[in-house]
Amino acid sequence: MSESGPSLDEWRNLYDAAIRFKELAPWSWMQETDIFGVQNPEMDVLGFVSVMGALGEHYALALYLGTHGLYGFWGMHDAGPNLQPEQMLEVPELQASFEDRAFLRDRDREVIKKLGLKFRGQQAWPTFRSYRPGFAPWFLEAHEARFLTHALEQTLDVAPRFRENRQLLDPFNGEHYLVRVPSRQDGVLSWQDQIVPVPPPEPIRILIQRDEQVMAALKRLKPVRLTIQVDLFMMPITIGERGVRPYFPYMLLVVDTEGGHILGSDLLGPEPSLNDMLAGVPGKLAQRLAQIGVRPSVVDVRTDRLRQLLAPMANELGIQLEQSHVLPALDEAKTFLLQRF
Fold first, then answer.
1. Is the pTM of this model over 0.85?
2. How many Å apart are CA 131 and CA 89, to the nearest integer?
3. Residue range 224-256, pLDDT digits in tens
4. Which of 89, 171, 180, 245 has the CB geometry, 3.0–4.6 Å to 138, for a possible disulfide?
5. Residue 181 DSSP label
């Protein structure tokens, strides 16, 4: 295990809390939307607990990290059947779930063996994962294990009270939440309820990267009556060195609307962060258009995020930018590429 991994005592505390959480089975009376907060005793950070399992399919506790995690959860909830895989994997989260033995990795089995624990049956094996935007679910670091332990333990306090009082977790004005707040006296943690305002986070500002030479080359091109479709989506593969958290690459796909021809496809990695990758997307598209010597009149995109990323470049080049969920040429090309993977 990496040096940042939990100690054996930290693992023991986490497994003990998870076992007691499963015995309580709060999914019997809680929905995923019955949210409450837990303040991290080690830093001024909030996590927001959601209990999964009401439908009897996936028993877990999710700890959504910070306001981006909380409102990312509500965004997933509001998306309903239109939820995209990358939307789930772009929300910062820690999760304790109960899986079949076949789901476990060697590292999980090693910890369970060292702790002398035994589990049997379907959805009986505690499993812990960390989710970071753009990266594959991965093993916990020590500070994550401690925070997830606190979240499980505080659920053991809150869930029975919620069963008796269904008003306990009702948000006030939609942006206030019950938060379990710790205090330490003589080295002992104690917890109390507080109603805390949690407004939506400020929009993330992304500093767009640009290549002045490429933009100058595009401006010299004569605009042509051509519509292209552009999409940015997560690929169903992982990339990374052994023992290091892998990431999901994103593909920037450019297609000729009328002919359906693929004009360009670039794999992008969310390193050092997803936002750094997004900052480079307009530049990648500009570079691709300059390579093929085309300055289109219209660019169609599907997502609001891509529209916002490309808007400054489109305005500067006099390109009409349109957004639509129906992009048949792009979907056909995307299906072709995904079948290859």
1. yes
2. 7
3. 999 999 999 999 999 998 888 999 999 999 999
4. 245
5. E
Residue 250 CA to residue 87 CA, distance in Å, equals: 12
Nearest Cα residue to 73 out of 94, 57, 59, 44: 94
Residue 2 — pLDDT band, cuts 50, 70, 90? very low
Token digits for 210? 């640009």
- Phi, psi angles (nearest 5°) of residue 294: -130, 135
Bridge partners for 296 per DSSP: 224
Percentage of residues of the chain with pLDDT beyond 70: 98
Residue 26, class by beta-carbon neighbours within 10 Å (0-12 exposed, 13-18 middle, 19+ buried)?
buried
Measured CA distances, 291 to 49, 224, 252 (Å): 48, 15, 15
Q: Can you read off the two tokens belonging to residue 169?
A: 């977790």
Q: Which among 91, 93, 71, 75 is positioned nearest to 83, based on CA atoms?
A: 75
125-128 LR contacts (CB < 8 Å, sep 24+): 125/98, 125/99, 125/100, 125/101, 126/15, 126/18, 126/19, 126/22, 126/96, 126/97, 126/98, 127/96, 127/97, 127/98, 127/99, 127/103, 128/14, 128/18, 128/94, 128/95, 128/96, 128/97
Structure tokens at 228: 């292209």
- Cβ-based neighbours of 144, under 8 Å, separated by 6 or more: 94, 130
d(CA 106, CA 243): 12
